[in-house]
Amino acid sequence: MTLPASPSTATNQLRPATWMRPGSARHYAAISSWLLVLPLLAIYAIGFLYPLTKLITLSFIGGLFANYGRLLDDPLYAAVLANTVGIATAVTVSCVFIGYPVALAMARLKGRLALVIAACVFIPLWTSVLIRSYAWIVLLQRHGIVNSLLVATNLTDGPLKLLYTQGAVVLAMTHVLLPFVIVPIFSTLQMLPQDYARAARNLGAGAIRTFLFVTLPLSLPGVFAGATMCFVLALGFYITPALVGGPGSMLMANLIGQQTTVLLDWPFAAALSTVLLAMTIVFIVVFRKALSFSKGFSSVH
After folding, report:
1. Mean pLDDT, range 219-246, rounded to an integer
2. ABC transmembrane type-1 domain spans which residues (predicted)?
3. CB-based contacts of 62, cutoff 8 Å, min separation 6
């Protein structure tokens, strides 16, 4: 006589194999986790680690520090590096000061006005960087719209040199990178509970004091995230400085492009790229430390 299967035995038969079954609601088994992650690791190794290894190896051709020594021997390269960091810092500061009020308006306003502001922020992201940079050439050239308005209103006696200057580079790069600062700040502000601000107002704090001591400290993670993204992108910007900047506005990306396409000095270009990569990593670590300090400083005890 065959005994009926117990409920536990029937349940075990209906369960999937161990290698497919997660250990809990949030964890997969080890082999299934590796199968899921393996395509990403392959893409990461082929598309990033291998080219990066080749780049660093190429920078040592001709001697252990032959190409890196040129960076110290010629002051031109140090000046370009300092100019790159200075312009990236100026663009980041400009984007934060302009983008924070816009992100705050997007998070606080409702209805059509909020949609209009959001459209002004996101629509430029759908436009090519080349087109947006060329638009600034049309605006800032000697007989462009800005100079025409200045001359027509008698604010200047003649056209000003607005194009091919560092100011034009900072202005154009700020316009291109502004959405990358607004979006993280907006996401942080939107997630902040309004009860904190209302509690501060009920305790007697005015609108400015509430913003300075409640809203701003709690939104610093978004500010640091947007500033980090903007600064890293500005360090490697190529198209905009090449179009609206003059010889005095050369950045590291333009110098690397010159070494590869004009002078065909690939080892030295690899050394410049490695230095720029190392500097980017250093600044990311600094931003991360500042973000950790901000979280600890603004935490509520």
Report:
1. 88
2. 81-287
3. 267
